Amino acid sequence: MRRRAAASVIKRAPARPTAHHPAGNGAGDPAWTWDEPRWRAAVNKVRAGRSLKPACWKNGARVCVALSFDSDHETSTLREGSTSPGRLAQGEYGARVGVPRILDLLRRHDLRASFFVPGVIARLHPDEQRRVVAEGHEIGMHGWIHEGTSELTERSERDLMRRAFDALAKITGRTPVGVRVPSWDFSATTLPLIRELGLLYDSSLMADDEPYELVDDGEATGIVELPVEWIKDDAPYLNMNRATAIRPYTAPSAVHEIFRAEFEGALAEGGLFLLTMHPHIIGHRSRIAILDELIRYMKGVPGVWFATHEEVARYCKAAVA
Ligand SMILES: [Zn+2]
Description:
- The structure is a single chain.
- This protein is α/β, with parallel strands linked by helices.
- The protein has a single domain, classed as TIM Barrel.
- It has 13 helices and ten strands.
- The chain has a five-stranded mixed sheet, sandwiched between helices. Strands 2, 3, 4, 9 and 10 form a five-stranded parallel sheet that branches.
- The termini are far apart.
- The structure holds zinc ion (ZN).
- The site of zinc ion has 5 residues, from loops.
C-alpha cells in the first residue's frame, strides 16, 4: 500500500520545473512518454561548448595540476538534518586536523590550491578561511549548508547562493569567483544563477577532461567549466558512513595508483589534472601520505604548472579568446 501511495505522489509531481518546484531532476511523468522537443530541451539546458584547452600552459608547461579541497566539515552531517554529535565530530576532524595538515603539506611543497567552502562552514570556522587565504590559496563557493541543489526551488537556490557568496566575501575579504555545487548536484537553474552572480567559473560538471565554455540553453556564456570526476575524488574510495553502505573499500595505495594514472594521462595529452579531496577524508595520516607522495612525483616531472582553479580559469579564458 505504501509503495502504491508513493507512486501516485510521483505521478502528480510537476512535469517541468517552475518557479515554485524543484528544478533538478525533473521527477514527473515517465521519460518514455516525453516527445522529442522535451528530451532535447532537457539535454540542451546546460551543455559543453567550445573547448578552452590552451595550446600550451603557462610558461610553456606541459600539464596543469589543479588541487582542490572541499571543506565540507560538519555540513556533511548537517545537510541531512542530523545533529548527532558523534557524526558531527567526523566532520570537525576536517577543520581541526585535516585543513592544518593540508596547509602544512602545501607550504612544504610551496603550492597553491583551491578550497571550496559552504557558507555555514565559513561562519563556523572563520579563522580557518582567513588562514587559507593568507597562505595564498583560493576560496570558492560550495553551497550554504551543503544542500542538495536539485531539491531546491529556484527561489531557495538563489537565496542560498547569495547568502553563501556574501558570507565568503565578508569573512575572507575577497569576492569568490568560482563555485563547486555541493555534491556536484547542478540543477536546471544553477547556470542562470551563476551568471547572475557574475562568476568566472564552475567546477561541478563532467562533460570533458579539459576546460570548456558553458552553454546555457544554446547561448555561450563565457563561463569556464573546470570539469570534475568521481574518479579524481577521494570520497568514493575512502569515505565512511556507518549508517549506509559507504565504506573505504579502496586501499590508499590503490587510490594513489589511480590518481597517478590520471596525471600521466593528462601529461601525455598536454591537459588538465584536476583533483578533488576533502580535509576530513584525505587529512588522515595514512592518506595525506599518498597526497605527499603524488605531489613529490609530479614535482619531479619537468613542465608541470600547479595552479589554483581561478588561475586555470583565467589563463584558459585569455589563451583561447
Ligand atoms: Zn562537498
